[in-house]
Specification:
Layout lengths: L9 H19 L4 H18 L8 H13 L4 H19 L5 H9 L30 H20 L5 H16 L4 H5 L6 E2 L12 E7 L8 E6 L3 H18 L18 H14 L9 H13 L4 H8 L4 H7 L4 H25 L1
Antiparallel strand pairs: 1-2, 2-3
């Protein structure tokens, strides 16, 4: 809280003090620094848009701001995140326990009010608000994507151009993302020792399980860990070739990142996104797809191959089966086979009952 001294720029200093206090509150809730910094930027963005400070904000300004965000075709989930950040900040500023309303009233003759209410906040009415392009790829599309990435690396090698190892690394990253159903951060943070053997599947050697150390965290918790069992035999050959034949000669001494760049122990998420985009464009896949589609594909293809839904849920680290359902988009021929099998069982059961009479 500000002291009683005179302020040279009272509005700005009060606003910064409010943000500092809000930051301390969220730190005490054990929220991540990234989450805190993101919401701080959102509140500052609204303050800049409104041209005033929290004790002068109005519902009309807030709704106009959200309307302008919608015009830029931002995702509905992104718009809601903006709304929730401003609401959370104002809830803190208006909380009598912190005394900010009283301090603002004393200095400026007015105080912050909660302008984000049920009447102007987006309603979370859909189970999945993701873009339609966030879908699973068909097996043919996956193969085309991987072939395009491999062809790019091979072209560089044949023409003796610089960049074969980075191109080979990019192709391997895409295959590993699909082979173990990994999120982008989970993939990029992998190290060599994160792979180990699975006694129940000795045929996979030292790559029978992938130990994910940077799984998606819930609010106030550290990254979640899980073990992803290897289920695709070909993926062992892919990661084995990289780890045993290429990676040891490419990484820098003392660095364990599995995907080193020319300048550091790990490539950036932008590099992964670019690798996917180049391969997807070459393979003539629809625009708007992203590396996350490979995780969707992993879920869908395991379900189509007959793996138990609970097993798949545990593999990808989903807490709820409903989340897994969002990721699953089985092909029409799979649904047809399931329908045919169900109908055949019904006919067989009816026949057995008829024979008993």
């Amino acid at each position: 809280m500000l002291g009683g001294e005179d302020l040279q720029a009272p509005e700005h200093e009060m606003f910064e003090a409010l943000l500092d206090g809000w930051r301390s509150q969220r730190l005490s809730r054990n929220l991540s620094f990234t989450t805190i910094a993101t919401s701080d930027r959102i509140v500052r963005r609204f303050q800049d848009y409104a041209g005033s400070f929290p004790w002068g904000w109005t519902s009309t300004e807030f709704e106009t701001w959200i309307g302008d965000l919608r015009k830029t075709k931002r995702a509905l989930s992104t718009v809601r995140a903006y709304e929730m950040a401003v609401r959370s900040f104002l809830s803190y500023a208006c909380d009598p326990a912190y005394g900010w309303a009283e301090a603002c009233l004393k200095r400026f003759g007015t105080h912050p009010t909660q302008i984000c209410t049920e009447t102007n906040l987006a309603v979370h009415a859909s189970d999945n608000e993701g873009r339609p392009t966030r879908r699973s790829l068909t097996r043919i599309e996956c193969q085309a994507l991987f072939d395009a990435a491999d062809d790019r690396a091979e072209t560089v090698r044949v023409h003796h151009r610089k960049g074969f190892v980075p191109a080979f690394r990019d192709a391997t990253m895409l295959k590993v993302a699909y082979g173990w159903g990994l999120r982008r951060r989970e993939l990029l943070m992998l190290e060599n020792h994160d792979f180990g053997s699975n006694p129940s599947a000795p045929e996979f050697g030292g790559f029978g399980v992938c130990r994910v150390r940077f799984g998606k965290a819930t609010k106030g918790s550290p990254p979640r860990r899980r073990g992803v069992l290897t289920v695709m035999g070909w993926s062992v050959d892919v990661i084995g070739e990289w780890v045993n034949e290429v990676w040891p000669h490419y990484r820098q001494a003392g660095q364990g990142g599995l995907w080193p760049s020319e300048r550091g122990p790990r490539v950036s998420e932008d590099r992964l996104n670019a690798a996917f985009l180049i391969a997807a464009t070459t393979a003539e896949l629809p625009s708007g797809l992203s590396p996350h589609c490979l995780r969707h594909s992993y879920v869908t293809h395991l379900i189509e191959d007959g793996y138990d839904a609970l097993f798949v849920q545990q593999q990808v680290g989903h807490s709820h089966a409903s989340t897994l359902a969002i990721y699953t988009s089985v092909a029409s021929d799979y649904r047809t086979r399931m329908l045919r099998a169900s109908l055949d069982r019904s006919v067989d059961q009816a026949g057995d009952k008829g024979g008993e009479r």
